[in-house]
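Q: Give me the 3D complex with S-adenosylmethionine.
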Amino acid sequence: MSTPTRPTPRLPRRAASPAPAATTPGRTDDYLRFTAGFRRLTRIDLDQYKRAQMERRIRSFAERRGEPDLGRYLRRLQDDHVELEAFLDRITINVSQLWRNPEQWEVLRDRLIPELAGTGSVRAWSAGCSYGAEAYTLAALLRRQAERGRTFRAEVRGTDIDERMVERAREGRFTAADARDAPLAELRAHFDAEPGGGWRASPALRKLTTFVTGDLLRTSAPRGGFDLVLCRNTVIYFNEDVRDALHARLAAGIRPGGYLVIGATERVADAASLGLQPVQPFIYRKTEA
Ligand SMILES: C[S@@+](CC[C@H](N)C(=O)[O-])C[C@H]1O[C@@H](n2cnc3c(N)ncnc32)[C@H](O)[C@@H]1O
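A: Here is the predicted complex, encoded as structure tokens.
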């Protein structure tokens, strides 16, 4: 399967060059200087995210770390990798869980997956996969489907901007809290119980899944390359324009007859213009190439 995103380079362990000043006349402020410097340091473009939310989050975090001056805080991030990791934890919001929004998984299990499996192939993409809970939940459903019907090809690709999450996803380990909404029978069938109440995805699930670091805002999926794209609880942090452009790229990556699943608080602004037809709340079928 083609790789949907290019890997983002590893976050630097050492200081990068000093932050440049923002250059747009009249728009220069310490927040924009911070985001410009942070972009040079990590390649993560915070200007694509909703400013009010992101700025509030960054300023309150920097203050709690004892450095309310964003210029000085940026220099600290450049010099201190542990601080950079803590900061990334704050801004990327990696919250996830197995079988998150169970009602969506019921539709996937009862309708989308049997239909797609009937075509002989399910190439799926968890876009903004965090530490892999969504991708492994999908892999478990695909395994169940394989036990029921005729053979089909299945693969689940997970991508996330946060390399640390991608590394965790490859491990496939989940806490008891991650599994709180997961059906116990499915957990027992597809995950191995670990000491302390946690679960690890079985080797069969891990074989179905691959995880790659990638920025959804810099790269796009191969045209029509996927039968199913899940992009849930990731665009909520983006500006509306950025969100809409991302939905358009995701839609282009889905073959006609394939599906896009979004988060239960999200919307696709103009689904029809992207060739997407709503079939259930937060689930769209691709109608045109
Ligand atoms: C709240 S988690 C959602 C995880 C999973 N999709 C779910 O619904 O449980 C959002 C994830 O989006 C990732 N993310 C944020 N901006 C991104 C970007 N530009 N490209 C790729 N991933 C991004 C974050 O690192 C985070 O892991």
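A quick observation: Residues 102-286 form a domain with the Rossmann fold fold (CATH 3.40.50.150).
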